[in-house]
Amino acid sequence: MKLSIKSIALATMMTVSTISVSTGLALSGSISAASAQTNSRQINRQLQFQPQLCTKSSIIGNWKADIVPGGDDILIHLQISIPAGKATQQGTWKFVGSPGQTLNQGKATASVQGNTVTLQLWKSQSQNNVTIMKKMGTMQGNFQDCGSKISGNGVIDNRDFNFNLSKF
Known about the structure:
single chain, about 55% strand, 10 strands, 2 helices, globular, alpha+beta, about 15% helix
């Protein structure tokens, strides 16, 4: 098999053009004199990345969300606080009205398994001079955005809803 200068240059140019697709090289010149120039701006843009360093996600802190129960047009402002230092992850919850007034409140318990968070909302009620704890609802979701948000669904007072809790 006999190869001419033009066929070798064409084969070289095809190899270079294959590389240019993946590295951002631009070809200039004719078949007999192929040369490659890099577009450094394009390569720099492709190589830049923003590392997102995350600490281990924690339920400890103050959380808030606006929730709308399914089939309802009422917006509920929910705040949950889980302080550090407790053996079990216990805290408080409250529903807040528009002028900042607490409409309902109680205790919250939280459990975390990997990236999954389960919150239970409890309310104390008096019956026959005895205070009992009644479960108001359960929320289950996953940590998002390096642990600054929890998204999921839940049930409160037999009403389904989706939620997006944010740390504040």
